[in-house]
Structure formats: structure tokens, C-alpha cells
Amino acid sequence: MENRWSDAEAERFVARYGSGANRNEDIALRVYSSRLIGADPRLVLHGGGNTSVKTRLPDLFGEAVDVLCVKGSGWDLDSIEPPGLPAVRLEPLRRLRGLEALSDEEMVNAQRCNLLDSSAPNPSVETLLHAFLPHAFIDHTHSDAVLALTDQPNGAEICAEVFGDRAALVPYIMPGFALAKKAAEVLEDNPDVEGLILLKHGIFSFGATARDSYDRMISLVSLAETRLAEGRRAVFAPAALPDRMASVADVAPVLRGLTSAVVDPAEGIDRPFVLDFRSGDAVRTYVDGAEVARYGRAGVVTPDHAIRIKPWPMIVPAPAAGGLAAFRDGAAAALAEFQADYAAYFARHNGRDGVEKTALDPMPRVILVPGLGLFGLGKSAKDARIAADLAETTVRTVTDAEAIGRFESIAEGELFDIEYWSLEQAKLGKGAEKPLARRIVAVTGGAGAIGAATARAFAAEGAEIAVLDRDGEAAASVAAEVGGVGIACDVTDPAAVQAAFDAVAARFGGLDILVSNAGAAWQGTIGEVDDAVLRASFELNFFAHQTVAKAALAILRAQGKGGCLLFNASKQAVNPGPDFGPYGLPKAAALFLMRQYAVDHGGEGIRANAVNADRIRSGLLTDEMVADRARARGVSEDAYLSGNLLGREVTAADVAQAFLALALARKTTGAVLTVDGGNIAAAPR
Ligand code: ZN
Questions:
Q1: Is the pTM for the entire model greater than 0.85?
Q2: What distance in angstroms lies between residue 533's CA and the mean position of ligand 1's atoms?
Q3: Residue 681, Cβ neighbours under 10 Å: how many?
Q4: Which of 49, 72, 326, 583 has CB atoms 3.0–4.6 Å from 44's, for a disulfide?
């Protein structure tokens, strides 16, 4: 492993973070080398690992106090800032070591009570371990390479041989007071070591300076890497797989539908996951292996993964091309087995310590799909990505472990203790979800005024957004703004539409809501206008709505959990304006199309609704057109735009709110919602 320390870079951190309130050079260097460690996924991932520095900071009276600045919860090492290293008074922490026992709650309380800043985040659950060791700088990682050595039946033996007298071994104990005491004892027995190997957990390194501690981490991890490179054997002989596999886009919605928990069957309310797919040589070798049920379900590579990805993944049959029905049945059986196993695991361990726990949801967070790859599942795209990242780390670590021996995790009861540990559950975050959390939304014409406003409005309510637009760059720019994905798509090209919806399903696992918004206004006096103009308008303003709705419907049906189709109609669809026939005619047909979807697919829980907007400044109603029309009516532009019952201009954001209202109106289908500030002459009868 490359040592990436740079004196010049370290100096830049000192210049930037070395002074100011509750800062000093130690903290600046602590931030620098924490980030070096955090930047390498082979060392730490997503909140895993922690670092600390013992230094002195002034209290309110200006007196220097010995403090431990240790990673706070909610911070990742790769982006840590000084506030992510809350300062805790060191002496009171050290005194705790004299106690016989200390509950987790007492430990957290003691840590919080000794913060210099009462509003600081909770110090890491491994704070006491940092406090009880004497070194100024301490680094803790869950290095893949170290885990591959220690996650073995004879891991202690292998580690003793590899690290010699450079690192001492600490037996597996759940993080907390007992582990902190044990680690301190081990160090006292081996005062000259550069680090500690926490069996089946990770590695600590320490030193007098930030550089010392970092150098030792890299050097010890490199020893592990060297050992892993020696005497490897080929692993994971492949199982027999179908000649041709189904696509990720076909498989993902099936899995998403199956794993969507039904919250209220009578009301049709469910709770789906967002999916994140991973593949590649290492993943494929792992999931395609004939023995995947053995090593794939053998437990997590380091304890804190259990809270995010459960003790083991779900493994489904290989999905053959053209065999989706059989795949669905096989996956349903795999899920039933996963849930039965999870219930039995819960029953075996619940109440062992005299405390009755509430069972967590019995849904997998990782799904292994032989012949394809793996999926991470989460309540948001971000959580799904974290689950997939942890799964990829598991693949790497278990592969290495099996190449030199046999992968072995902590015991099942220890997995349970971690998964149901209140301090770890806190990492997952609580609180009510936003109304559209877990929902995947595709918006066509997503880079236009109404499309972009709609993407923003849905994202603000928690949805994951796919922005489809003919202009791929513009789509990407709106997508970046809302944290979604941008896809170039000409909705009048059926092949492009299919490819775009495949991309949405492959990216997020499926779809819940379509906003079919793309459109353009053609004009001409009916009876005079060229048929070619009419046909061009029908292609975009009618057939494209049908093409995207059909592609969306296929995904919704594969999930089997209902869904929502929303169409951008227009005032022209019900109230023709002079010379706007080429625009209004296909829009009228699109309105009817919406109702036909409502009629034909209501039984599947699929709703279809439309928004009927008027006089919105956008790509269809350009500034130039506003000026022309205002002139023709002899009024100002403002008067033209606010020429409605409310006397207020209606904006793209208002249209977006109407789409949102229809998406949330769970028992509304076949409806048209008018957004025009009030125009009784154009009101549908
Ligand atoms: Zn740890």
C-alpha cells in the first residue's frame, strides 16, 4: 500500500486548520492524515474506522486542558473537518478505566458530559480505546488486507506470523468499555509495538506524531498485503450457468418488487428499496462460484457492516434470458428462505442478555445474482450505494481470505449483538422519511422549465430522480442539481426511450412515477396547415407520451406494486386557441391516452393523471411569444401573464407542485388538474 504522506500537503493543512477557536497544529495534522486514510476504500468505508489525537485546548478561563479529539459520529474520515473531531477531557475518560464495568449508556453519557463543546457530535463508540492508549496519535481502520488474514479459523496464528513483534493481537470483543480495557492491557504487555490487530475486526496504529502513526498503518497493512500475495490458490470454481443471462434492467424491477415490504395491504402502501448494481471480474467470480452459498453467507468481514448489510446476503438463482417468470419464482423462494432464516436467527439470540429487542425488518440489504453481479439495497440511492460498497469490500476480503485459507467471521451471536446494538443502530439515523423517499421518478423534457422545476420539487420530497432530455448535457446539469441521473433521450425515438428506461431500472432498480412532460408547440390554421406539421406534432405531443408510458408500464408491472403515470396536457387539449390546432389536437389525444391508462391499469394499482397548465413562461411559451401576445392584446407582458382570475403569473414551479400533488394523491386517477390561475372560459366541462 502506497504511503501518500506529503510534507507540503501537511503544511497546507496546518496553514488552513492550525489556528482559530479550539484548533491547533495537532488537530490540523490529525485532519490531514485522517483524510489520507479515509480516501482509501481498502482501509475504511462510510463512517467506518476512526482516528484521534491527544492535545491541549484552552477552556473558558484560558487554561490549557488535556483533551482527546476523536472522530465524531456522522463524520466520514475522507471529508473530516476539525468539528468532526470533538474534544473530550482526557483525564475523566482515563479514570473510567478503574471501573469494573460500564454500560454502553453510561459510557456514552460520560463521553458527552466531558465534551468541551456541548453541541459537538457524539464521540466514536471506540473513544475509550483511544483514551486508554498513551500515544498522541492513533489511527484505526478496517483494512481489507488485515481482515483477510484475521477472518480465518487460525487468524491469530497467521497474524502473529505476519506482524511478529510489530503488532500485538487483541481477541475479538464487541466495541465498548471491555474492548478498550483489553486493548490497553495488551499494549501494556507489549509496550514496543507499532499497532494492535483486533482479531476479526481491524487494526490500530499509533505514534508520537501524525506521520508516525500513519506510516505505521501503511507499513503494517503492506505486510498483510505481501502475505496475501504469497501462495494463493485459485478460488471459487464456477457453477453451471445459463448460456444467456437476462439483463440487469429486467432483473432489478423483479427484485425491487419482491423486496418491497407491504406496510398496509388494504391501502396498497408499500415500502420499496432503491437498488445499486455492481459487477466486474471480482464480483462475478464471487457470485458465480459453485460454493457461493457457503462463503457468501459466512458473515460480515468486520462487525459494523452487520448494521448496514445484515449478517448475510440473499442469494437468488441465475436469471436466464427469457426466463423471468421462473426467475421471479426462484427469487421469491429465496426471499422466503432468507426471511425464515432471519426470524430463526432473531429468535435464537433475542433476550440472551435479558433484554427483549424489537426485530428489525427482515429484508436483505445485499442480493447476490449469479451470472450478473450484486445489488445493494437502501432507503435512498445513497444508502443503496453504501450497501453495495460494503458488499464489494466483502467480495474483495472474502476472496483474499479464501485464496490463502478459509473465510470465517465472528460467531453468529456476536453478529446479533452488533446488529442489535443500540449504539450502532444510532448510525442508521432515525426520523420520519419524506413523502417520496424510496420513490424513483423519471421526468421527460427534464431540462426544460417545467421539467426542471418538477425534478426539483420531487427531489425536495425525497425522490430519486432520472432527468431525461433530448439535450444530454442539460439533463446532466439538472440531474447534478437534484442529485439524480441525467439521460440523453429523444422521446420520439422508441429505441432511445427503451434504452433510457432500461438505464433508469439498472441505475435505481426500477421506477415508481413517470412525469411525461416533453412537448413542443406547433402552430398553423387547421385546413391550411401542412399535414407534415400535424404529423410531427403528433409524434412528440401524442406518440412520445405513449412510448414513454408503455416503457414505464413495463417496469411498474415487473415490480407489481402499482405506480403513477403523469402527463403534461395543456389548456389546448380542452380549449382550442386560434391557429393552435397542430398543438392542441395531439394534446387532446394525450389527455384521452391518460384516461385510457387509468381505465386499463387501475386494477394493477397504476394511476394515471394529467396537469393542464396555461401561460407558463417556458420553452413552449418563449419570451418572444409573450411579447407578441401581450402586444396583440394591447396589454403589458405582466398583465398578459397574470391575466387570470387570481391576477398572478403562474410559473413552472406551480406546475411542478401540481404534478407533486397528483403523485401524492393515492386515490386519484383519471383526473386532470388545472394550473392556470383561473380561466373559467377554458374550464373543462
Ligand atoms: Zn472498528
A1: yes
A2: 66
A3: 6
A4: 49
